[in-house]
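Lab notebook: predicted structure, single chain.

Context: the supervisor wants predicted structures on file for every construct in the current expression panel, including those that have not yet been purified. This is the next one on the list. No modifications to the sequence; it matches the entry in the shared construct table.
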Amino acid sequence: MQQLVNTALGGLTLGMVYAAFALALVLIWRSTRVVNFAQAPMAMVTTLLALELIEGGASFWLAFAVALVSGLVLGAVIERVVVRPVEGKSEINAVILTLGLFIVLHAAAALLFGNGVRSFPAPFGVRGTEIGGTTYAITGFGMFTIVAVLVTMSLLVLLFRFTDLGLRMRAAAHEPEVARLLGVRVGGMLTLGWALASVVGSLSGILIAGGDLVNPNYMDSVVVFGFVAAVLGGLDSPLGAVVGGLLLGVALSFVSGYVGSQLVALTALMILIAVLTLRPGGLFSTTPARRV
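Prediction complete. Output recorded below exactly as produced.
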């Protein structure tokens, strides 16, 4: 029974990690209609910057704040300098550009921070929680991760559903010409979308790294699982990203614990194929899937 509970708790924490990254993908999609495959290396760069500060003597929370602010700036600069020239053209151009950024940012991080494996500290305990003499597989940092993801999801829901700013961002992404006629600064909204998505991505980078080992490649596998979680829940839904991450995390945790870790990637692929076949828009999609 304890193994079952610990496997479920491990899946809960793992699912929240995937949900954190999926939220960044959902935010960039809702605000710009671009799937940003460079989200992972962008988060990796800000996380390694935070680690440099921590190793230099700064507190975890100061480094955490610097990572979020640097993510905001990095997202805005990339949109203005790199992505802006291809906006308004074929959607595939922006996707290919983000794949190129994926490679460039990895190379830049290796030059700036090195390729060595380093330990990223956590502000809370990374040992299991003991209740009634039994140790359960939920750590202090895991609890922090759960709370941080739920708060981020709530803020995104409030932004897009109940604020004028969220409405302008969605209008700029879906109908830029109409939005311009209505007085919306489309360029500014797209920049803001990239900047906010980069902040959420930076948060996911810190949550994934906390109490673990990092290098410039530490988030590469998260791209796959985070994307599956976002598609599972629906790229238009912050709530769907969290639910998708939880479902994926728990499923993969049970596969790893009871079947074999070598089948984890295959299981994720099967889940992705099933969702794209049965419900292409995702479980919580609010718009119909586009069919050609």
